[in-house]
Design brief:
This protein is mainly alpha-helical and 212 residues long. It has one domain: Four Helix Bundle (Hemerythrin (Met), subunit A). It is built from 6 helices and no strands. α2 runs antiparallel to α3 and α2 runs antiparallel to α6. The protein is elongated and about 80 Å long. The relative contact order is 0.13. The N terminus is likely disordered.
Length: 212
């Protein structure tokens, strides 16, 4: 309860800031629907960048297990750099999805409230139907995005384990021990890329619906 009392003012402050932001944007002609479309497109770009980063990490891992003499410390540093970049990419994807949820909730709440302002029953029913359809598409998209987000975690865990193991055992035996991990990491990254491709394709359809 004590933690809730501490967090509640922060959450209310954040909500107030978001409300003020949306109001300010509407005054210059940018509505929540426009913001939502923009954020979905930004999430697409973030996922595409994450795909490339995880592919790069896999290439580095492939080079690692083929190591045959040289500066092993430099190889470790390159491997760690790829892991850190993947972690940052994953955090950016999560932040983008969270920002989508924030504006979508505000949009749908506003849309639902404004249905009560109609005096024309036919127009109200048509708007309510469009709201239901848009929410259904959005919920499906969000589920797909969260699935792709979740699929990054086993890859990050494996990359971290492998990086730590290499750090603590900078020798040829460590390379041999990691060779057996490659196929598993490759499989997880391929699954991740597939999940992100599905999310990206679904995002394009959703944005097209918003812009109709």
């Amino acid at each position: 309860m004590r933690y809730l009392l501490v967090l509640l003012p922060l959450l209310l402050s954040l909500s107030a800031c978001q409300t003020a932001y949306y109001s300010a944007m509407e005054k210059v002609g940018v509505h929540k629907r426009d913001i939502l479309a923009d954020r979905v497109e930004e999430a697409q770009e973030s996922q595409q960048e994450a795909q490339q980063q995880f592919k790069s990490a896999l290439e580095q891992f492939s080079s690692l297990i083929k190591f045959d003499g040289g500066d092993l410390q430099r190889v470790y540093e390159a491997t760690d750099s790829e892991f850190q970049a993947c972690s940052a990419a994953a955090e950016d994807v999560s932040a983008r999805i969270n920002s989508i949820e924030s504006v979508a909730d505000a949009l749908f709440d506003e849309w639902q409230d404004e249905l009560e302002q109609y005096t024309n029953t036919s127009l109200k029913q048509d708007s309510a139907k469009k709201l239901a359809n848009t929410k259904r598409q959005y919920n499906s998209l969000l589920k797909t995005m969260r699935r792709a987000e979740k699929s990054m975690q086993p890859v990050l865990a494996s990359l971290k384990d492998n990086t730590l193991y290499l750090k603590h055992n900078l020798n040829a035996k460590a390379i041999g021990a990691l060779q057996g991990e490659f196929n598993s990491v490759q499989k997880d990254i391929n699954r991740l890329i597939d999940d992100m491709n599905k999310a990206i394709a679904q995002s394009e359809q959703f944005v097209a619906t918003l812009k109709q």
